[in-house]
Amino acid sequence: MMVRHGKTVLFFIGLTLWAAQPVLAAEGKTLQIDGSTTVGPLGDAFAEVFKELHPDVSITVKKTGSGDGAAALIDGRCDIAMMSRFMKDKEFQQAVEKGVFPVAHVIAMDGVCVVVHPSNPVTELRTEQIRDIYMGKITNWKELGGPDMPIVPVSRDTSSGTYESFHSMVMHNEKMAANVEYVNSNPQAHARVRSTPGAIGYVGIGFLDRYVKALKVDGVMPTRSTIAKGIYPVSRPLFLFTNGYPKLGSIIHAFCTFYLTEKGQEIIEAKGFVPVTEY
Amino acid sequence: MTLWRQIKNTLFTALCSGSVLFLAATLMIFLLPMLWKGSKAVFFRKTVEFDKMQKELFKRGHAEDLERRTAQTNQARQEALALLEHFSRGIDTALLSREVRSAYQQLGRHLRYLEVSDDEYARLREQAKDIRDAFLQALETTDKAEAESLLDTVDAQQTNPRFQNSPFEVVFSLSKQYRQILQEIDLSRRPEYAAELDIVKTEMRNLFGPLPGESIPPLPQDRFGATRWDVAQRHLQYLIYQTKWVPSGKDDKRLIPKQIRRDDPEEGIFGKTELAPLFSMVEQNLAAMLQPRPTIYWRYFLDDSTAGHYFGGVGPEVLGTLLLTVLSMCFAVPLGVLSAAYLVEYAAGGITTRIIRTCINTLAGVPSIVYGLFGLAFFVLLAGNPSILSASMTLALLVLPVIIRASEEAIRAVPQSYKEASLALGAGKFRTFLTVTLPAAGPGILTGIILSLSRAAGETAPILFAGAVALGPIPDIGLHLKWLFQPTRALSYGCYDITVGDRLAMQVPHNQFGMVMTLILLVLLLNLAAVLLRWRMSKKLQGL
Amino acid sequence: MTTAGSQSDAAVQFTRPLRLTFRDDLSSTLLSWLVKSFLFVVTFCSVAAVLLIFVFVIRQAAPFFAESRVSPLERLTEFFTSRRWFPEHQAHPEYGILAIIAGSFYVTITSLLIAVPTGLLAAVFLSDIASFRTRQICKPLIEILAAIPSVAYGVFAVMVVAPWLQKNIGFPTGTNALNASLILSVMAMPTIISVAEDALSAVGREIREASYALGATRAETMLRIVIPAAHSGILAAVILGMMRAVGETMVVWMASGNATQIPSPWWDLSQSVRTMTATIAGELGEVPQGTTHFHSLFAIGLVLLIFTFCLNLLSEHFIMQMKKPKR
Known about the structure:
The complex is a heterotrimer.
Chain A lengths: L1 H17 L11 E6 L4 H14 L4 E6 L2 H10 L4 E4 L5 H9 L4 E15 L7 E2 L1 H8 L17 E5 L4 H9 L11 E3 L2 H10 L3 E6 L8 E2 L1 E2 L6 H5 L6 E9 L7 H6 L5 H9 L3 E2 L4
Parallel strand pairs in A: 1-2, 1-3, 5-10, 6-7, 6-8
Antiparallel strand pairs in A: 3-11, 4-8, 4-9, 4-11, 4-12
Chain B lengths: L1 H38 L3 E4 L1 H11 L4 H29 L1 H22 L3 H23 L3 H13 L12 H16 L5 H19 L20 H12 E7 L7 E7 L15 H14 L2 E4 L18 H32 L3 H16 L2 H16 L4 H26 L2 H9 L4 H30 L32 H10 L2 H4 L2 H35 L1
Antiparallel strand pairs in B: 1-4, 2-3
Helix pairs in contact in B: 1-19, 2-3, 3-8, 3-10, 4-5, 4-7, 5-6, 6-7, 8-9, 9-10, 11-14, 11-16, 12-14, 13-14, 14-16, 15-16, 16-19, 17-19
Chain C lengths: L21 H44 L6 H10 L3 E2 L7 E2 L2 H32 L2 H16 L2 H20 L7 H26 L2 H9 L4 H12 L1 H17 L2 H6 L20 H9 L7 H32 L4
Antiparallel strand pairs in C: 1-2
Helix pairs in contact in C: 1-12, 3-6, 3-9, 4-6, 5-6, 6-9, 7-8, 9-12, 11-12
């Protein structure tokens, strides 16, 4: 009994050592997708439909954030990196140094919508006001014409692409105040705002529903058309990054051009994003 | 004085008992709602849509029976759907715009077919595009005069011979159609109608699946209507009532929600339109339209799920958790039991033993997230990618001290006379341990193993980075052992993800709580097994 | 839960079976030596594991302190004294974890304030008041309380407690220090109860009887005699409970709100805080490997590890003290 267990242990230790080489990455019919939690639902849905079209391909979608998606692509840990921002200079440099040449595919547009609880009478804010809220200069809704209620600013965690978009487009790279709450995903941000009358948060346009109220930013309401046209001040493209342009006809190529098909477009709309092409 | 002392004493006793009662109450406050809400994932009233979903996604159910019920429900729905379609023709310009767009696309194909020259092709396409854009703009505008002048520009091209007898001709008849609509409805209210109609349509889809004439949606979650009666009830509310946020009238400026029936003749947006009968029609006939029946969906624990756990069960999560825990036991149990044997039988005190003991205690005290860090830094970076193997080895380290302590206690509890008898018969020390002590301590060790199984099953932080994913292929277990190097879904991580990380899941709270319930049940069952085992053991010992 | 430290004395008298021939003797001695060293090596795995954990966490944390742009001393000073945690800022990242450490302490201390009195009273009930049968019922109850996975508690905190706090108490946010502390106290209680009960039982029967014989009531006996006598074991219980609370991840991550701030005024538990464990769990998954931010999270892990290690040594010290008078 004991001896057999000992063997099992040895066996598994051996296996671990063997595992030191990434075994699976070398295999052909797998597709590793990694990256942004914003693009993640799209990746999931694409993968789901893809599974029906190509039953022999095993697709893994990991939603670990844009930064990690870039790093994974650079390290060769994934085939496709989903990103809600463009690659940074540093990441590009690292990639090229490692012989990876990132190619961007814009698959959809997304607007970062500023949302509040529906009981909040405020309907419109200027970017400066939003910035002041997140910098802690405005702390009560009554300063903005709302009820006497402390503002609970909710932000995405600092590694997310949504945060970076918001940070550069609204915050102009100013640091946020200490009382800002951090949540780890869009749904969580949505849930926090939904359940908190005094909260303000920001989510992708796919997360607007009856439970939260989107604010006009600089007089522009976030809608599909304002985002697609880029009128809404906080809109951004969503990317897939691949190492070089994928070989035509390969599974990666099929995945990266899936957004052009009608089904892909429908999914993009179903998931609440804005397709880049009109069909 | 004595009285005072007695009061104090009674108070103290009451406090002590109270605190235990408080604990029991806490447990109940926690367990009951979680299990109750979770049980709705298994016990609920299913609708005909549920059977359709099961048939299509999981290939089960009686085809004939389902067909019959589908026919029945379709008949019940027919009137309402027809009403909706008729009404939306006038309001919903998306349909018209889609037809115009498709006509434009077909024109291109038609021209290619005719093999016109490239210059001609480009010119005609350009013209057609102008017409299309004018039409689309006419659809979008809320100013009647503007719309009509735009339609005039469209109609001006009607005489163009190139467009006659081409697929693009449709556009001109559509334009005529739209002119008629313009006469009938109040354009200024149309956006309002359109927005509300959009919601009504969405809710109708949520109730009854894709509307007639719509293509099959690409995502499974949109292919079916309300599969559960409670979900159907919720969507019915959304369908009938419009929530308006209105000033509360008090000074605090906060808005309060106000429910308005959409078909309310005074305030409801559709109150005075021909759509009004729809709402009461659906409200009264919902049961006939969906045919709810109570069901026990025991396959919840085995079924795979669609993305975001919208449909289906927690099968892959359960499997993943089982794989992780069992595999981690494969590492931890031999190590733990042998370590315990050493500590009990051989350890001679002294500095080495003290260091070992300190280390085991340290191991027990290391925060679970640090195990996660270690798992990432050691196993994952070493092996390249997160996998079942790295996650289970991390878990093995985590439960190692638990197993060592439990085994130690069990081995110590074996009566000395057993060992003495064996030793006296001439068996060596190690043989005595293997053949006498270990079997006698077996149930105790097993209890420890079961408890650490439950611990490993519930831990989330260590596997966060070491091999758990929210969505991934089901590991195909086999002798080829490749599955060891795949990441897997797990109940514990799934619970986290479904609570905070998924938008779809927010719409299916029964599945959120269902997953947590599954985890709690699993842990409770393991603990129950441990308690029973211990109880049997103590009875046996008493019997000696 | 207790660390047993006694040795098997009785078996020592029977180590050798009857001696037969020289070869038998030699082989059996060799065999037993082999077995012993094999078992020792196996047991040493635990030690190796602890060492490995330390080594790997330190190895990943080291680049954070040894980065060339800033001197290690500056880094350290910033790390422990600055409240500003902006690891992802492009131009001027800041890595101050003072507020995060403070957050950990907030939830830990508050949860102990609830868990220690309740746990201690429950331990008194179990050791001195309850009948054998009651104890048989209560013990599994407490075990179940301890066995419920932390993520399940976390879901409870987010989906049940947080809305309740918001609606009925009127906090601006339901995920705050108080919510996390409440749940943590429930999680720390089983540890505290079982260790404290051991400590109370370890105080001999004679002492209690002497006290009762002098006419003391049960309250007086427990509060004035038994609890003071068991103080080191109870301290160990508190420390072990504290370790549980400090190291807990999922609950605080889900329930504490994760705002990097020290509440002001300092006693305001309705504000969100962020703990060390939550910072690691929340950020590590999304941060690219090899960046300073990545290493800084390991540095936080190292702080956590060292802290719990010290607590552990302390608790061991107290447990040893508790065991001494018993012998």
